[in-house]
Structure formats: structure tokens, C-alpha cells
Specification:
Protein name: Rpn family recombination-promoting nuclease/putative transposase
Radius of gyration: 26 Å
Distance between the termini: 51 Å
Order of helices and strands: HHHEEHHHHHHHH
Pfam families: Transposase_31
Strand order of the largest sheet: 1-2
Oligomer: single chain
Shape: elongated
Organism: Candidatus Eisenbergiella merdavium
Region (Disordered): 1-21
Biased composition (Basic and acidic residues): 1-17
Length: 271
């Protein structure tokens, strides 16, 4: 499917996806059926309206093409008319595996399968459990968002993913940055949306943004450490950088402490 290999993050569709996943997980096959029906109904409406305009219906005049059957005329749909196929993908961002229904028949009162009943199985993208090969089959911002979300809880793997896919993090749209901040619960990422990290194409250089935050974090950590005589400020910065995928070594360098101390903070022993 061509659409699978490339794509950008659209704010309206992303919002719909989040709403559906949060409120309709247990009825998802039915929700997909509704969306598909609305899509096809809109296409049918456009085709019929075009025929009405072409045939002059409703304007006091009528032009019926030669060879048109009564059924085609009454239905405003020719034998040669075609609909564009609709494929609805369900994006699931959760940490836990999807445990909702995946087939329309899962919602029925009985388990009896019949050839006469409508069959529908949702096309589910369980992002946190997608194989690397599947994530890398996307060449737009979807690869950026999918990979970042999958590895958000594995900081070393996230750092490796960013390095290996650097070209996808050097010109990211503001909408995609918002998605990253929302999906990983890291509001610090949203602070990259400044002129200093803007690209000529109007996007955000996330790689430079993270590097800049490391520099700012180091300075702030030292300043707060001297002022308060405590390590609490550096620890907070360390956790913020960790949430953005920084390795223990990079965090230690940015906060001016040893890697062993950073590891101790993350394990909870330093509290």
C-alpha cells in the first residue's frame, strides 16, 4: 500500500485518533465501520451531485446521455462509476498491548461465524510493538513519531534510533513536535519551537534542539547547584533529559556529575 511508506502528522486526524483510542477501544470495529461508511457515503454524494449538475436536474432542464438505463438514471450512479477504496488504520500508542476487540464479530452475542454476516477486521498499528522494519518502512514524519514513541521508555534505544534516523529529526513540523511532547509526556520538547531551532523549510531541528537543551541544562544545573548547595536541581534536569532519550553518559556530562550518580538517581537509591 503506497500510503504506508510516507506520511506527515496531521493535527486534526491525530486528534481523532487519540479520541477514538481513548473512548472507543471496546467498540473499535464498529467505529471503523462507521468511519468507512461515512467515507463511502460522501463519495456517493459527490458522484450523484456531479451527475445532477451534468444532466441539468433541478434547473428546469434535463439532459440524459444516450444509452443510460433507468436504474442508472434513478440511482445517479453509472455502471462505470467507481468509488475510491477506503482503508482505515487504527493507531494505538499505549504501553500495554491492545486488549480490545479486533473483529466486528467480537462484539456479537454469539460466537457462531456465518458467511452471511458482515465480516470486518480492523487494521491495527500497535506502535509500541511494531517491528523496526515496519517503522522504517515509513519515510515521513510517521517514522519520527512512531520510533520516538516506541523507544520513549528505553532511553539508550531512543538515542540510537535518533542517531540512525537523523535525517528525520532535522526538519520536523511543529505538529509532529507537539505529538512527540504529548505522547511521551515531555513538555520540554515543546520548548524547541523557537526561532533558534527553526529550519529554512519552516520545521524544527529536533537534533539541535536537544543539544541546546543539554547546554542550557548544564548551565542551569551548575547555577542552581551553587545557589542552593544541593543536587536536586541537577537531578531534575537529569530526569528531563532522560525523558527525551539522552544516554546516561550524555546526562552526566550535561549535569556535571558522574555516570554512577546518574544511574543511582534513576534507580531510586539516590533519594
Amino acid at each position: 500500500m503506497k500510503e504506508k511508506t510516507k506520511g506527515n502528522v496531521d493535527s486534526s486526524r491525530r486528534g481523532d485518533t487519540g479520541k477514538i483510542a481513548g473512548q472507543g477501544m471496546n467498540t473499535m470495529p464498529f467505529r471503523v465501520l462507521e468511519l468507512d461508511f461515512v467515507n463511502y457515503a460522501r463519495q456517493m454524494q459527490v458522484i450523484r451531485e456531479n451527475h445532477n449538475a451534468e444532466w441539468g436536474i433541478g434547473k428546469g432542464q434535463r439532459h440524459i446521455p444516450e444509452g443510460l438505463t433507468a436504474g442508472e438514471y434513478l440511482g445517479r450512479f453509472l455502471k462505470t462509476d467507481r468509488l475510491a477504496r477506503c482503508v482505515t488504520l487504527v493507531l494505538y500508542w499505549g504501553k500495554e498491548p491492545w486488549d480490545g476487540p479486533v473483529k466486528l464479530s467480537d462484539l456479537f452475542a454469539d460466537d457462531t461465524e456465518t458467511a452471511y454476516a458482515l465480516q470486518l477486521e480492523i487494521r491495527l498499528l500497535d506502535v509500541c510493538r511494531m517491528a523496526d522494519e515496519e517503522i522504517c518502512s515509513y519515510t515521513g514524519e510517521l517514522r519520527t513519531v512512531f520510533g520516538f514513541r516506541k523507544y520513549a521508555d528505553d532511553k539508550e534505544a531512543l538515542g540510537n534510533f535518533i542517531n540512525e534516523n537523523r535525517e528525520y529529526f532535522t526538519d520536523v513540523s511543529e505538529t509532529a513536535v507537539d505529538a512527540l511532547a504529548e505522547l511521551t509526556h515531555s513538555p520540554e520538547l515543546g520548548k524547541m519551537k523557537t526561532q533558534g531551532y527553526a529550519t529554512p523549510k519552516g520545521g524544527i531541528d529536533v537534533c539541535r534542539g536537544i543539544q541546546g537543551m543539554i547546554r542550557d541544562g548544564r548551565l542551569e544545573g551548575i547555577r542552581e547547584g551553587i545557589k542552593e548547595g544541593k543536587t536536586e536541581a541537577r537531578k531534575e534536569i537529569a530526569f528531563s533529559l532522560s525523558a527525551m532519550g539522552m544516554s546516561v553518559g550524555k546526562i552526566a556530562e550535561a549535569t556535571g556529575v558522574s555516570p554512577a550518580l546518574v544511574t543511582e538517581w534513576f534507580s531510586g537509591k539516590g533519594e
